[in-house]
Design brief:
Component of the proteasome complex. One of its GO terms (biological process) is proteasome-mediated ubiquitin-dependent protein catabolic process. Keywords: Cytoplasm, Nucleus, Proteasome. This protein has a single domain (43-239), classed as Glutamine Phosphoribosylpyrophosphate, subunit 1, domain 1 (4-Layer Sandwich), CATH 3.60.20. It is built from 7 helices and 12 strands. It has helices at 5-9, 19-25, 27-39, 97-118, 124-137, 182-192, 199-214, and strands at residues 50-55, 60-65, 68-70, 73-76, 82-86, 89-95, 145-152, 158-163, 169-172, 175-179, 224-229, 234-239. It has a 5-stranded antiparallel beta sheet, with helices on one face. Strands 5-6-7-8-9 form a 5-stranded antiparallel beta sheet, covered by helices on one side. Strand 8 (158-163) and strand 9 (169-172) form a beta hairpin.
Amino acid sequence: MNCPLPQAISPKSTQFLPFYTQIRTKSSIFDCFLRLNLSLMSIFEYNGSAIVAMVGKNCFAIASDRRLGVQLQTVATDFQKIYKMHDKLFIGLAGLATDAQTLYQRLVFRLKLYQLREERDMKPETFASLVSAILYEKRFGPYFCQPVIAGLGDEDKPFICTMDSIGAKELAKDFVVAGTASESLYGACESMFKPDMEAEELFETISQALLSSVDRDCLSGWGGHVYLVTPTEVTERILKGRMD
């Protein structure tokens, strides 16, 4: 059967009913819209994600949503998107979930080799360069991931950065975001962020920014997962948000 969508939206259409009436009365037109929307969806949006990292005074926080979806269908509500590399270094992987897990396994392998050879933990700046090199190596068939890296470097100075799928780094001194909810996260973080926040204030700020942002994105949500990292401890908390 031919798709009725072109006839419905064409100026030369012979249909005299208003367009919204056609949508209501002809379910096939609505089905065409739905298929068109899904076919145009970016592969980075296939599973949905929202990741944000934010710095405070000698501390940082990194948070993500917990939803794993297949386009508009929710598959899991406890999916891990933030990974601990060592006590002062974390990475969040937005994008295609299968590529994120593959990339994480490669990073663990390279990190363990470094620790065996150097007998010390990798600095966040070094780790960011490693991630960038691995992504650029696969640039002709890239991992569809957008990493967010957060860690404590020399003298416990917080470091955060993000990069695209071929490893182009974007450094920041306040916050970085990634995922399908990134536009909402930018707005929330810009309005809520303050320099030199203490640990608990930082946790409250990043939590409110995440929850308010995923409510405006249908591909992410189902609560949040937050890591708050100081020079002496790592605190992990689960947020409960809207479950729809």
